[in-house]
Design a protein that fits this description.
Two copies of one chain form a homodimer.
Chain A: E1 5-10, H1 17-30, E2 35-39, H2 40-46, H3 55-73, E3 78-82, H4 88-98, E4 101-107, H5 110-115, H6 121-126, E5 148-151, H7 157-170
Parallel strand pairs in A: 1-3, 1-4, 2-3, 4-5
Helix pairs in contact in A: 1-7, 3-4
């Protein structure tokens, strides 16, 4: 059977994680991979409704996501995780847990994230209406050593997707495709 | 790809769910299926450490398990769940959520379960040391319409496994094997 692995998108709110993850999903599905997207919001509804956004709760959220991702990966599924996952340590634990993890740092200056924020979440966070908001009142720790970095303020979506697909190919993740 | 489905073992504590699920796992693995066992205890450690054993918490536990089972099933995995899952309504919701579910009622009189209880959990429950213990201080609702019933007080493990495998075969679950 084809080998499973996880593609883990990390970045600030509105940096482009969900958009890119959906596009990469399409590309890989066309190549015949079994794909499962674990999107932060859906996961919070089904797996972690008890958790908030303190560091402890965020870590537990990532711990549960990585458990589910691991189960899928060890059964040959390519799992795409799109989650802010702001803490380096929690992401490192997920990497160790899952085993095969390709980290995509969705790099976007906070100013650009705010410009795209049609839901007005950053504004509400700055006004203090949303506590523990990553980038405003909570830290975001950029990955020290991601498999690929996309700069979504300077690249088109197509360019970022191409960069990710090329990195997956070059680093041997698609060999069995 | 082969179709996924879930085999859901429900029954009292010490009725034989884990033993049977491991044996069925072996049988199906030999037939070339992708298998993932979700055992109640491991799941409680990784997915639902926040939950206790009230009805509400048990329902939430089953809700999370069924989400993970669904993700695996829709990616072609045969998922084996072994969980007391005492409430009919929560099991029915899991069935609807997962879509393809084969329910195994592990039927064993409580007297026999107690005889096998080398950990002494029933004794502690009767003494009031463990609250919300299924069969003692919490109800167990037998499935009204399971795909198969095994009577583990009267059958050997081999007999119960054979019964389950035959029912899987007869009901068309192993056609793609």
């Amino acid at each position: 059977m084809k080998a499973g692995f996880a593609i883990w998108f990390t970045g600030l709110p509105r940096s482009g994680k969900t958009t890119l993850s959906k596009r990469v999903e399409e590309e890989l599905r066309m190549q015949g991979h079994r794909i499962q997207v674990l999107d932060g919001d859906e996961v919070r509804d089904r797996l972690t409704p008890d958790l908030g956004f303190t560091r402890e709760d965020r870590d537990e959220n990532i711990y549960r996501i990585s458990y589910v991702a691991k189960l899928l990966v060890q059964n040959g599924v390519v799992v795409i995780v799109a989650a802010i996952s702001p803490y380096t340590q929690a992401r490192a634990a997920a990497r160790q847990d899952i085993g095969h993890l390709f980290e995509v740092y969705v790099n976007c200056p906070i100013k650009s994230c705010m410009e795209r924020d049609y839901k007005g979440l950053y504004k509400r966070a700055i006004l203090g209406e949303i506590p523990n908001f990553t980038g405003v009142s909570d830290p975001y720790e950029p990955p020290p050593n991601p498999e690929v970095v996309v700069d979504t303020d300077r690249e088109s979506v197509d360019e970022s997707v191409a960069k990710i697909m090329a990195a997956l190919q070059n680093q041997g993740y698609l060999d069995s495709g």
